[in-house]
Structures are given as structure tokens and as C-alpha cells.
Structures
1.
Amino acid sequence: MRGDGRHWRVGVVLEAGRTDGWTDAWMDGWMEECCERCVGSLPWASLIATILLYMGVALFCGCGHEALTGTVTILQNYFEVIRAPGETLDVFTIIDILKYIIYGLAAGFFVFGVLLLVEGFFTTGAIRDLYGEFKITACGRCLTAFLMFLAYLFFLVWLGVTAFTSLPVFMYFNVWTMCQNTSLVEGANLCLDLRQFGAVTISEERKVCTGSEKFFKMCESNELDLTFHLFVCALAGAGAAVIAMVHFLMALAANWGYLKDASRMQKYEDIKSKEEQELHDIHSTRSKERLNAYT
């Protein structure tokens, strides 16, 4: 049977169909050692950050896309906003552009998360197997530094996305609050004018007042409540992506420091090995000279 002693013993046990106490203890220890190696070789910091990033991006992109679709429905049904003909830049065109941006964010950060996770696996292997298969190189350190720069840049991007997402949450919260307190604002005659939000031009008058039938229909519909909570979930997803970027920055900074120290240690060991080889060659040469002089 091929393999080392451990595999041979496991094969003997399986073929015999029986185990004694010593074999059970040995197999438990062997399995525990394998589990420790597998768990110890995983880059847990990068893995947790990747999961958090994917969750945040998926939550932001999915809920944000559906919230923008609900916004289009509300504008068309209750504010009677019509899409401008041709290629005029109106609120619907802006919403379509935001949807394409969401598609790009989903694809881009999926690839970026894979790159960071792969870098975490290779960095963990390079540090753990410093004198084995992997070697610390200047290219590896530069790659880690470049990914750290990208992580910091995307951290600023997600901060901006979070701030931008908070605007529709604030606007929908005001409308949702007015709908929840219709009895209090019944005699106030408040109006929601889209010109205040920049959704339409100044010449267009698109507003819904509290005493109108459209206002009550909008408050009783599911579109307003669902769109508001979808924007809240999208904001939570953007916040999770910010936390993931901070986690990635900490992991990459730690990996870069470890790689730098490991590279110095590797250079020291290489110099030490060369010196020992030179001393060995000198002693061998002297021994040969003495042997020749004696003979």
C-alpha cells in the first residue's frame, strides 16, 4: 500500500474492520492535527472581511435597485411625472444611470473581494512556509501595498456612497412620517413639491398636498412603505461595506508588515547560509591540503 506510515496504518485498520483503543486514540489525534492545520492555514481576517463585503454589496445593490424602481412607480402614479422624450436628462434618466452604477459596483467589488481573499491566502502561506514552497518577494510586497491603496480608495468611495444613500432615506422618512401622522397634519395643508428635491424643473409643478386624494392613496399603498424600507436596507448594506473596507485595511496593513519582517529574516538566513557554506568549503580545502602534505 502506498503512502507514509500513517496512511498504511489507517488502511490496515479499515481492511481489518476493527479498531482497538490505541488505534482510536491515534486516529483521533491524527484527525485533530489535520483539522488544526486546515484551520490554521485559513486567512480568517480576510475571509471575514470578504463575507462582510459581499453581504454589504449584495444588500446595497439588491435593495437599492428595487428602491429606485419603486421611486419610478411613485413618481409616475402619484406625482404624474412623465419621462421626457429623446435623450433629455430628467429624473428617470438619472435613475437609470444609478442602476447601471449599481451593476458596476456589484461586478467590480465581486472581483475585488476575490483578489483580496486570494492575497490573504498567499500571504498566509508565504509567512507560514517561509523556507518552503513560497518565497517573500518584492513583487509580493508591492502587490500588498497596491491592494492596500485600493482598499483605502474604495473605503472613501463607500463613505461617499453611504452619505449619498442617506439622502433618499431622509426624504422618504419625512414623507413616511407625514403619512403615519395624517391626523396631526390634517389641517396643516402641507405639500410635497418635487421642485424642492430637484426632481423636476422649476417651471413644472408636481406636488401632492396632505388633504388630496392622491396623498391618501400614496400613504395607503405598499410602494411608499416598501421603498422607504428598501432604502434603509441599502444604507445598512453601504455601512457594512465601509466596515468591510476598514477590516481589509487592517488585514492588509498587518500582512504588509509581516511580509516586510519576513523578507528581512529571509535575507538574513540566506546570508547566514552562504557564510556557513563558505566556512565549510574553507575547512574542506584545508583538510585536503593537510592530507596532501602528510602523504
2.
Amino acid sequence: RSSYSCCYFVLPCCFFDFHGKYSRRQSKKTQYREYLDFVAQVGFVCGFHVEEDCLRIPSTKRVCLIGKNRTYPSTERALIDKQITQYINNRQTCAVVTCDRRVGFNHKDHSDGVCKEADSELPENETDAAGTIWMPGFQPREKVEQIRNCASLPRDFVDDVVLNVANLLLNATPQKSCSNIHGGNMNTWNQGESLSLKEVAEHLNKETLKRLKSEYGGLQTLLKNNHQVFEVLNGRVHIRDWRKEKPSTKTKPEVKRRLSAEAFKTRLCWFFIHHPDGCSLPSESCPYAHGTEELR
């Protein structure tokens, strides 16, 4: 709910209804156009004159909807509350007659029966509740959403998973990668095998998997976050071979170049510490520190 003088701006993106993903009802429109019409309809049911505009932003979804003034006098607020309650309930039960109007709604549209789902009478037991609650059992999101991208997991837990997965790849029919020249000496460096995410998950204990499932992306996100060690391509996990990393041919912006320079040798090289063959790159070429004495 909001004050009578409230205005709103919305930039529709992901297709969601009040109770889950938005279900299409008209095949003659694109999904995006139909969803825009739905969001505009919601604004109209809430008693707004809805206007549509297009933002100058680098996105394919740049149509915005604006509600700057109301379609009803302030004395009819209780009636609009009942209308909103009925609309939400009808969306929940999927008993919806879809409006085929886009923008520029006015108060007369309602009396003409454009949005029939908002026009019907409320059951007696819902009439009294309309002024206090719109959707029983509704739980709003927390003001501060919990970070669930594996970034908040304890460092020792992440390090343990990384080491276990790396050892699993190195010991699963290890493959010797191409020869590496360090100061004229020929050394072979073990890149290990590649395994699917499912195969990797099968080798982790239940407690670890349970903890990872509570995070968005789970195991895959954790491995991708540790891009120094792993490369995840097409659902398969590989040990990253830094010798194969090709320098970008594009000129990086000044900010990115400065950040890359500032991050050089600020973290220890995982391969130097944990890999049985050490790092595949010589110290002067590796962006990570080979020993604490190289740390900046």
C-alpha cells in the first residue's frame, strides 16, 4: 500500500506473477509484450494512469512503465482496495480474463468491464479483510537478502573442497600435459583428468553437498569462484593450465589495467603450494606469488 500521492516507476525484466513464474495466455503476442501488458494491467487495477516509455540503456528489455497519478478520487480508496484483493485472488486461482489493453488506461475502462477479474464482487468473508490484508500467508522478502553465491562460506571449508576436488582430478587416470620448459629443463606437468560435475559431487561427503546446496549454483559456483585452480566448461571440471591462457588482444580500459597491476603477486599461487609438480609457469610469469617472500 502507498499514499494517494505516491508515484511509481518499474522496469519489467524477469517474468514473474504474484505467486511464481508468469504463465503465458496469448500466443499472438511475444512473451515480453504480454508481460508488459500484464504489469501495466496491475498498475491500472491499483488505480493508476499507466504510461509506457523506452529507456536509452544497453539492454533488450528497456521498456518502462510509469504511474504518476490516480484514476480515482481519494474517497474511493476502500473500493480500490477491494478491487486489488479480488484481482490478486483471481490470479492465484488462475481464473483470470486477460486484459488486451496496453497503456493509457482511464477510470472509465473499469466501468466498461475491461478488467473483469477486478470487477467481480468479493465474497463476504473477504470484504472485511480487504482493508487490512491483500494476500493471506504472504511473506515479503527480507530487507537485506542473504548472500548465497558461496562467497560467504568459511574460507577453510572452501579450501578443503578445492583441495579434495583437485586431488580427485589429479588422481583420476592422470594425463601428462605437454612438456614445459623452465630454464632449459624439460618438465612434464600433470593436468589430471576432467570429470563431470555429477561425478565430482558423487565423491564429496553428504554434509559438504548439503552445505553447498543451500547456496545458489552450489558446487559449480564454488568451483567457478576458484578460477585460479579450476576451469568449468560444458558441465565438466578441469584443472586450469595457465600456460594455455591466451592474452587478450583487446585493449583493456585503464581501470581494469590498474586493477590487474594492483592484484599482481598479492595472493599465493595455489599450484606452487599444493600441486605435486608445482606451478606450470615460472615465477616471473605467474600472476600469483611463489612463496611468501614474493607477496606484495
3.
Amino acid sequence: MALIPSQVLRVAILLSYFSILCHYKALDMPAHQTYGGSWKFLTFIDLVIQAVFFGLCVLIDVSSLLTKGADSREQERQLKKLIGLRDWMMAVLAFPVGAFVVFTFWTLYLYDRELVYPKLLDNFIPQWLNHGMHTTVLPFIIIEMRTTHHNYPRRSWGLAAVCLFGIGYILWTCWVHQVTGVWVYPVLERIAPLARVAFFSAMTAVICIMYVLGEILNSYIWDHTHTEKVKGE
């Protein structure tokens, strides 16, 4: 038996995301007052995705508890729909976008932090909040993957959905630049137009790789768990 029930972990993670979002929105940052506000940053979009995802997980836990022992086909059908939506969000949004944010942020930060997170931001964002936005996302989503089995969609459909999300964000970033004349991330200011195309293509490829890695990790965790149970019997 797990030391901490998965339902309790989900509630704790959901509350941590609410706290992070509230503290982030309370920051008095000039970038939040310009066109697009917080929504032009992928980090903020990812935090919203994670909060919605874990909120859905908690809703399913509560619904399962309330309908336990009830003989209602309609309730069972609605619960299966929620579980299907949860699994889709895990596969297409929560894991690939979360892993992408953590990987790309810290890769660019370690190479040259001014490309993605200028030192000036230290005056606005405390270290704990920075890690809440760019570090703990990955262990949180891996904990969820480890405690609950998620059914992934067909890979071609999953990759298509991830690509659609990535291209949509790229177009949104370009539109913000068109309106304001400023790129959302400093790295985009420093490279030539052709290099931006290559950069956007590479980032789309990375988020697709994250999707495949999530699918492989999910299969490994649960195939391995199933094998151990069979051996134990």
C-alpha cells in the first residue's frame, strides 16, 4: 500500500498549482500589463493546463467515491467520459507541454539565462516561485503517471494534436510580435528570421519527442507493474 494515497497527492498538487498561479498573477510585472498579458507566456499556459488537469483528476476521485456501490449506468457512463478526457489531457497536454517547458527553460537558462529568463526578473519572481513554474511540474506529472494508469490515444492522433497545440502557440507568439513589435522571449530577438523558422521547427520537434517519451514511460511503468504482479502470483 502506498504511504500517501494517490487521491491525497492529487489534492495537494492541485492546491500547490492554485498557490503558484495566485502568486504569479499577483506579481507587479510590466510584461503582464502589455498585450496578451500572462497568456503570451507558455509557462503560464502550462500552469493553467496542469491546474485544470489535476482539477479533473480530483473531480474523478470525488465522483468515484460518491458513486461507489451505486448501480447507475448513466453515472458510470459519465465517469468513463471524464476518465477518457483525463487520459487525453495527460497524453496530449499535461505531460508533453509540462516536460517541454521544464526541458527548454533549463536548457536555455544554463546556456545563457538572458535568452529566456533575464536576471532582471529576479527582482520580481522569487526563487521558490521560479521552481514552482519551471521545475516541480515534471515530478508532479510523473507522480500522477506512476500512481494511475492512463490510456494513450493512437500515436498518429496524439502527435497531430500536440503539433496543433505547438503550431497554435507559435502563431500566437508571432501575432503578439505583430501587434507589439516585441518578441515574447529574448532569444527570438537575437536570431535572424530564417533562424527563427528553424528554432520554431526544432521546438515543435522537441514537444513531439516529449509526447513519445511520455507514451513510452507510461507503457514501461504499467507493463513493468503488471509483470511484477503476475510474477508475485
4.
Amino acid sequence: MQYNPSMSTSAAVCVSTLLVFLPGVTAQHQEDVRNSFEFAARAADRASGDDYTVWFNTFKSTLISIHWFSQQDGVARDVQGLVLDDLDFSASERELLIRALNALQQKAENEDALNLFNKSVLSAVDQDAVSRLLFIGGGSYRGKYQLAVCSERNGAVAVSTSYARFEVDGAQYRSVLYSDGQVETKTTISLHVLGLNSERYANVRDAIKQRLEDSGVSEQAPVSGL
């Protein structure tokens, strides 16, 4: 029986986003989502500098310009404790994100995806970050990332994404996936649900893919071993 990627869970890193694709998302739509997120993130990186509110606004407006639409925008709120416990996802979706994060940091075949994620998440560091996922040594750090789940039902594609922004001051070997809400680690998250107009996106699909390829650098990588 031929393998069909749409019938299993998969994951990928696209710039500073960890995307989990639920079973049922077609291979074409997975590619559309990955390319859209990379295209929008690159536009946001060019336009925003270190202003992470501007970054997400540019990211979202770029998606809308290529035939995505907003279904829900949550209000940013502070996190106390483990970020994963505070996400507005179902228990099963949260479990898949945890599996993807564990695979990202524990499996050797995901080294490229891990390096891409860490490099894209952290804006600048006072010293080298240690190799494990988002664990950092002493120093001051700022950054942003998204943990996202993509689903498809009757051809309709939607992505629920939690956008996290964090600041760390003087932390000693701890993960920015945990926030004490104080000086050492402060994190805010907001949930956004975005839909893809697949029919209209088909008109720009090849042009977006070509622009990404023409850059000569790919900022997406698969995550294996879920």
C-alpha cells in the first residue's frame, strides 16, 4: 500500500514556527501552509526589527494578502508556568505538539530543524545558546515563536497558532517554554485562527514557491519521528 502523508500526523519548522499537521491535511495543502508561513515570516523579519507586535501584524497582513483570512484573534495574556499548559488547544492537539517538540530536540535526524528553530526564535544572545531546544544559559534574551496546528475538513484548511513573545534576564539553564512571569522569564501568548482560501491561493502558489526558491535559502525543515 502506497504511503499517503495526509493520513498521518506530520510536523515541520517554518522559520520560528513549529507546525503540526493533523491527519487529513493533503500533501499539497501542507506545502501551501509551509510556503505561506515562510513567505509571511520573511516579510515580517524584514519589516519589524525587534518590535514583536509589528512582527506578527506584518506576518498576518502578508498572509491575508496571499488569500488567507482571519477567523479568530485572541488577546495577548501573560503566562505563569509551563507555556504548553496554557495553550488554547485540545488535549490531543497539545499532546501532538509535545511529541513534536520532543522529537525536535531528541532525535539526531532533526538537527537541521532544531538549529533553524533556535536561530529563528532568538533575536540575539549574549552568549551561545546551548543545543537543546530553547534552553539557554546566563544572559539576556528576547524572542518569539509560534506553536501551530493545521487541520483540514472537507477541503477547508485552518491553522490555529499560539504566538509567544518572551524576555529572559539572567536565567540559568532553563527553557523559555517555562515562564515564571517575573524578571527572569516573562512570556505572553495570543491565539489566532487563520483560514486558507485554497481556490484563490492556487493562483499565486507557483509565484510564491518561485520567490522562495530564488532566495537560495530554505527556512523550513521537516520534523521526523512523531
